[in-house]
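Anyone up for a design puzzle?
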């Protein structure tokens, strides 16, 4: 089908067990907490072999899974959970400064980060919680941004295949 194992996570086996939609949500969720599991790689890998009518739900469910995971990071930023930030620890202060620079437009920073990944949405999620941003605004901006990102990623291989054919 496709190269299905990334960092020990066998996508093909997961899809066979739970179906493409649940698998997409699960991969989105896991990748939202474990940075080396990558939703983007998963989406690019499955895009050429998934029925065209399933691409949009796959992308949106991956985005929703990510936001459920980012919710945990958001509340970790508020101190509800303890999460080791690992390599992202050094970026927390610079992202906090960006939030302060953006002031009232910090929600746009969340949307931007969720869409393009800079600053890393992992860190932005944590800092948004630490700075007591409104959860609903964080969740909606993050979901819109991740949806845009994942829809673009899932359709890109389709467009490329159509162009090459």
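Challenge accepted. My sequence:
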């Amino acid at each position: 089908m496709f190269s299905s194992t990334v960092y020990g996570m066998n996508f093909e086996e997961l899809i066979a067990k739970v179906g493409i939609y649940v698998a997409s949500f699960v991969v989105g969720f896991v990748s939202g907490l474990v940075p080396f599991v990558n939703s983007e790689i998963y989406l690019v890998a499955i895009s050429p072999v998934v029925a065209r009518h399933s691409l949009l739900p796959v992308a949106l469910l991956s985005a929703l899974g990510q936001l459920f995971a980012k919710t945990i990071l958001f509340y970790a930023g508020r101190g509800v959970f303890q999460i080791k930030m690992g390599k992202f620890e050094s970026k927390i202060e610079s992202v906090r400064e960006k939030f302060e620079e953006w002031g009232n437009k910090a929600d746009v920073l969340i949307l931007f980060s969720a869409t393009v990944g800079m600053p890393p949405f992992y860190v932005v999620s944590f800092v948004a919680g630490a700075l007591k941003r409104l959860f609903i605004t964080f969740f909606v901006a993050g979901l819109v941004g991740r949806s845009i990102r994942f829809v673009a990623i899932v359709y890109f291989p389709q467009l490329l295949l159509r162009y090459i054919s």
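A detail worth pointing out: Residues 5-164 form one domain.
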